Amino acid sequence: MSEWQEPDGQRRASGTCGNNCEDALDRLWEYLDAELGEPDAAVVRAHLAECEGCLEEYDVEVVLKNLVRRGCQEVAPDTLRVRIREQLTVMRVQPAQ
C-alpha cells in the first residue's frame, strides 16, 4: 500500500489499482454512511473486494467511525437544536453573496 498527500496536507493510503483507488477513497465516507445510491455503492463495494490497500483504509475508517460514535453519546439540548434549525432556515432564505 502506498501513500499520497492531499492538497490540505493529509496523507491518504491508496491501493494499487490507480485512479479507481482515488475514486473509491473519495466516496468512502459516503459509502460508510450509506449515502450512495445502489449503483455507486456497488462500484465501491466491488473495488473494496478487489483492492487490499483500499480495504485496509476502509477498515481504519470503520474503526474511527465506531470510536467517534462511542465517544459522542451526549444529546444536544433542545434549545441548541432550535437555534441550529433557525440558523439553517435563515441561511436558506438569504441569498448567497
Can you describe what's shown?
There is one protein chain. The protein is mostly helical. The chain has one domain (2-93). Helices cover 64% and strands 8% of the residues. The protein has 5 helices and 2 strands, in the order ββααααα. The chain has helices at 19-26, 28-32, 38-50, 52-71, 78-93, and strands at residues 2-5, 11-14. A two-stranded antiparallel ribbon has the order 1-2. A hairpin with a 5-residue loop joins β1 (2-5) and β2 (11-14). α1 packs across α3 and α3 crosses α4 (52-71). The longest helix is centred in the middle third of the chain and has 20 residues, at 52-71. It is flat and about 45 Å long. The model is unreliable at 1-12 (pLDDT under 50).
- Percent of residues in helices comes to 55-70%
| Largest sheet composition | 2 strands, antiparallel
Unreliable stretches: 1-12
State the end-to-end CA separation: 43 Å
* Count of beta strands: 2
For the biggest β-sheet, the strand order reads 1-2
Give the CA-based shape: flat
Approximately what portion of the residues adopt beta-strand conformation? 5-15%
Number of domains: 1
Number of helices: 5
What is the N-to-C order of secondary-structure elements (H for helix, E for strand)?
A: EEHHHHH
What class would the helix/strand composition place it in? Answer: mainly alpha
Q: What's the gyration radius in Å? A: 18 Å
Mean pLDDT: 81
